[in-house]
Amino acid sequence: MNASPFLRRALLLDAAASGATGALMLLAAGPLAGLTQLPPGLLRAAGAVLIPYAAFVLWLARRPFPARPLVLAVIALNVLWAAESAAILALGWVVPNALGQAFVLGQALVVAGFAGVQASALRGARALAA
Prior knowledge:
Blueprint: H1 5-27, H2 29-36, H3 40-61, H4 68-90, H5 98-129
Helix pairs in contact: 1-3, 1-5, 2-3, 4-5
Keywords: Membrane, Transmembrane, Transmembrane helix
């Protein structure tokens, strides 16, 4: 599948945001935990997951012909991340302050948005290929 500019930009933006968020959570877990009342271990673990994810999405975005199943995997991972982010609050697994809730819900909404944009871009790339 030839990557449309729209799909490529959607993947690149996801990689940049995920990498920046992952670096923040990994490198500044202590201060971020103090501000948000989120557990520092959770922040470090999430950051450690986001760094290789961002590298993978960047690699995929730079491919001239990204494999459709890999793009679908990125979309699925984004949907899963957004759902799990909302679930940790809804199920009471963590009890952050208002800033922490906004941090978790805000990034869940952004990640869900990435999934939607990437799915739309993937449909567009398929339509162009047909």
